[in-house]
Amino acid sequence: MSRVAAKVSTAVKKILMVRPTHFEVVRYAINPWMDPVSKPVNRELAMAQWNTLRETIEEVGGEVHVMESSNAPDWPDIVFAANAATVRGNKAYLANFLHPERRGEREFYKAWFEANGFETCGRTDIAFEGAGDALWCGKNYSRLFAGVGPRTDIRALPDLAKQLDDGSGFKVVGCKLIDPRFYHIDVAFCPLSDELALWFPGAFDPVTQHNMKNEGVELVPVTAEDAGFFSCNAVVVGKNVIMNHTTTRVAKTIEKIGYNPIFIDMSEFIKAGGSSKCCTLQI
Questions:
Q1: Which molecular-function annotation in GO is an example for this chain (predicted)?
Q2: Which pLDDT value is given to residue 1?
Q3: Distance in angstroms (rounded) separating the CA atoms of residues 280 and 40
């Protein structure tokens, strides 16, 4: 499916991206999408896809800040900036990765945030994987939907509420993930605005599905097939939804609710279990 003409956003959204200088899938497999033997990454193509994502975000009015990763050759997944931290105002609650294959990324992210004027916090004894597992939604972004189970420990939730407290009284909503393919919440839940989101219900247990429906957010479902194309792992800038190539069904759904789908190829990053949203972090 070809890309749809963009609608330039009037509100500037600042987004962090990490250049995929050392991105590869050859050393390990820490999710069901990774297969180092039969699905290695084409690094040249991955760089081209990353550049297209960056250019597309900028075309629709986003402001991209690039963190270089040339000094991080041991951490190929550092390209997935979504996992760096959860940001509220000028404070970044840093990730503490479950798998040792990613734990070293934290120090690089910490250095970037502090060099760019953010206050950092976050525990190192409880697993938590940044905005990959914690997304702001709800009226005036008063809800932090936090995925728990595969990668993030539920014990991180009260500390998130404490450390990111800005006086607004936001609520942390724990969301239990049950499908190993959707190991972070951002591959199954995509806020489009503060009161509207795409989601794949089957990624969550029944109690979580019930709870998410009662947090004042209109939830627009996608099918299991569409979720498998990473349709919920999208970058939203204004009314534009930038995502991996998917079905015409998703395009119609997005257009029906007043948004503009823009499709790009993220095939090389899907080999590592991520797509357009995984490569970005709103800051």
A1: arginine deiminase activity
A2: 38
A3: 22
Beta strands 171-176 and 143-148, pairing class: parallel
Catalytic residue positions, numbered: 184, 278
User: Which residues partner with 67 through β-bridges?
Assistant: 18
pTM recorded for the entire structure? 0.95
| Residue 46, domain member (yes or no) | yes
Work out how many domains the chain is built from and give that number: 1
The beta-strand segments (E) located in 10-159 are 14-18, 63-67, 85-88, 91-94, 119-121, 134-137, 143-148
Q: Give the SS3 label for residue 188.
A: coil
Phi, psi dihedral angles at 259 (to 5 degrees): -115, 165
Is 178 a domain residue? yes
Segments in the chain below pLDDT 70: 1-11
CATH of the domain at 195: 3.75.10.10
- The C-alpha atoms of residue 177 and residue 186 are separated, in whole angstroms, by 11
